[in-house]
Amino acid sequence: MGHVIGRVEELPPGERKIVILRGISIGVFNVNGEFFALHNRCAHQAGPVCLGELVGLATSPAPGHVEWSREGEILRCPWHRWEFDIKTGLALVDPAKVRVKSYEVTVEPDPPRVETFPVTVESGWLVVHV
Predict the structure, then answer these.
(1) Is the pLDDT of residue 117 over 80?
(2) Which residues, 6 or more positions from 63, have their beta carbon under 8 angstroms from its beta carbon?
(3) Which structural domain range is residue 109 located in?
(4) Confidence (pLDDT) at 120
């Protein structure tokens, strides 16, 4: 089930938004115009991973040579600095075994049709008619 969390322009590149959907804290990220969502719970000790720093990836193809890539695509947990690929939720340390749950994000031209209920106010009380 999809949940509308806002308009595309409300989440510019490099920014994030933390939302609660069905009781789950989820971080939604705009990485260079692509949108990704991760469960805001680190696989290590349940820290608020989505509040962490967005960094790049340092690799070393040869001794004494370091390359920097994927700027803004690596999420570093603020508690113990565990790092996760923001596009997949996989941990950099052991991607076969450690991950943060990821969720699909789509951009829709119009808000999806949602079930609505008529609402009225009676004597100061909000009433939802089901």
Answers:
(1) no
(2) none
(3) 8-128
(4) 61
Angstrom distance (rounded) from CA 77 to CA 12: 21
1 within a domain of the structure (yes/no): no
Buried-exposed string 40-70: b where 16+ CB fall within 10 A, e elsewhere: bbbbbeebebbbbebbeeeeeeeeeeeeeee
72 within domain boundaries:
yes
Q: In which element (H, E) is residue 66 found?
A: strand 65-76
Summarize pLDDT for 8-46 with one digit per residue, the tens.
Answer: 888 899 999 999 988 999 999 999 999 999 999 998 888
**Nearby residues of 24 by Cβ (< 8 Å), 6 or more positions away:** 39
pTM score of the predicted model: 0.78
Overall residue count recorded for the chain in this entry: 130
User: Which residues make beta-bridge pairs with 83?
Assistant: 76
